[in-house]
Amino acid sequence: MENQVKTIIKNENEVFFANSVSLTNSKTNFIVDFKQSTPRMDILENQKLTTIVIKHNSILIEPNLVKGLVNILTEAVSNYEKQFGKIESAKQQKEKKIKPEKMEFNYIG
Fold it and tell me: What is the domain range of residue 31?
């Protein structure tokens, strides 16, 4: 009788968009913390209240897997830049942005 192995992959987490990331490490693991910061505007009794909602998802990775991930990301970024052009750093993007004089929010909700 043959031994069969059935594999079930469950992805119960919702898709997560990160606009910030931080990295820490110990001797045994790297901890990558992906963050999502979303400003929210509420109007209470004719006063505007701005709330920043922060969600985060962290992953722990062993050092040998981090090294492999670095190689995969390096290749992926190289292919991306060949196809779409050079990726600018956050600092380069900030220098190019023109700050608006006044921000207007149209909030319905």
Answer: 20-86
